[in-house]
Design a protein that fits this description.
The protein contains five helices and no strands. By secondary structure, the protein is an all-alpha fold. The radius of gyration is 15 Å and the shape is flat.
Amino acid sequence: MEGYARLQRRLMLVTLVISLCAALFAYLRFDLLVARSLLVGSCAGLLYLRLLARSVARLGGGSRQVGRFQIVVPVLLVVAAAKLPQLELLPAFLGFLLYKPALILQTVIDG
């Protein structure tokens, strides 16, 4: 279980670094609104990753299936981006997906 906890921390840290780099790039290339939307989306992605990790960690105990609560995070992100003028939908959703490059990078490093 210690190895799994270490993997979780590494994934969160790499996702955070990728998100900050992407937000800085978006700020320099586009504007503050896009960078802010990207950061909000990446925070939602980090929350999603954390909820998924907790759900997977419980699989060894009494639970036999992954929880479905984490699906609420992207749904709320899309609803918030649609309702709030301070967020743009596409950058927020792309920010949400920034946890995926961290997963791919971790797979390449461990593989």
